[in-house]
Amino acid sequence: MIRLPAVDWTVVVPLFAVVTLAFTWGRGLSVLGAVVTGVFLAGGVLAAVHHAEVIAHRVGEPFGSLILAVAVTVIEVALIVSLMASGGPETSSLARDTVFAAVMITCNGIVGLSLLVAAVRRKVAVFNAEGTGGALATVATLAALSLVLPRFTTSTPGPVFSAPQLGFAAVASLGLYGLFVVTQTIRHRDYFLPVAADGSLIADHQHAAPPTTRQAVASLGLLMVALVAVVGLAKVESPVIESAVTAARLPQAVVGVVIALLVLLPETIAAVRAARRDRVQISLNLALGSAMASIGLTIPTIAVASFWLDGPLLLGLDATHMVLLGLTVAVGTLTVVPGRATLLQGGVHLALLACYLFLAVSP
């Protein structure tokens, strides 16, 4: 009997997910089609997490979490621009809504869930306050600069920047994000490595040998394929989500929230798995790094795209969302400063996310 070589599911699933995306893009889905698409969407998420962990094992932290955060954000930004280019004036607030959803989901959902998981296992979740504090400060500055200030500027009416203001926000966002990446990976890399209860760095001993360069490069390629499939299939599923939202008589903003939740699933799963291994710092790197990349890469890209996009670019948050953002920054600061967190802090962050989700459904 001839035995065929075993094929790893983490290789097959991303490829089938992309094939599914090619067959479903731009077409209406039947009930069976929506189920199949959802299955491959979930499979693509799990495959992306696996390949991200392979890469992280090869390059080490914080490079592993940085690669996953940037990869997801780059594809997400491309999706936002394509939707705005094809959607017309009604998509003028899409960038703002997507970025704010990403900030709330990462800074409250991923952070809260990671702290909760770690605190359940060890009673206290421990992380490096210096690195995490710098990351939170950068996220808060980027969010205020890009999402709050447009509501108060007077050069143009409405929650929009004038062309010079948008250019400044784009350059400042990209510059701050670049400065953070240099700090995280070169100047103060030890601030972003997992720490033990006594504050010492954890030596991440691995029983398995690190993957070879060839395996890491293959995983990088498959990671990109999986993420393209995840984001693309989330978009394909969006008409089904829109129909469900309309049938339930919910606000259209709920659609963007659901898509953001789907797109951020790889980071969420990877962060929770790191927290279960007592690597809370890696979880926080993923959460805050994703929020930072979402703003730092989206705003410059949208600024360039605004030259050919029709209609105004609405960036300023409304009063309700500004209150939630202010609470998120204040609570996040109080969580980060001690370098230790309990179940309570995790629960508070999750409560803020629940409040955001509830107000999206019932504004």
TrEMBL record:
Compartment annotation: Membrane
GO molecular-function terms, A-Z: potassium:proton antiporter activity; sodium:proton antiporter activity
Keyword Transmembrane helix among record annotations: yes
Domain Sodium/calcium exchanger membrane region: 30-185, 219-360
Pfam family, one: Na_Ca_ex
Keyword field contains Membrane: yes
One GO term describing the cellular component: plasma membrane
Xref: InterPro entries: Alkaline_pH_Ca-Antiporter, NaCa_Exmemb
Membrane topology designation: Multi-pass membrane protein
Annotated TM spans: 7-25, 31-51, 63-87, 99-120, 132-149, 161-182, 216-234, 254-272, 284-309, 315-336, 343-361
Keywords: Membrane, Transmembrane, Transmembrane helix
Domain of life: Bacteria
Primary localisation category: membrane
Protein name in UniProt: Ionic transporter y4hA
Species annotation: Planomonospora parontospora
